[in-house]
Amino acid sequence: MGMPVRIDDALYELARTEAQVEHRTIAGQIEYWATVGRAALDNPDLPVSFVAEALASMREPREQSTSFVPRIRRA
Question: Which domain range does residue 39 map to?
Answer without folding.
Answer: 9-58
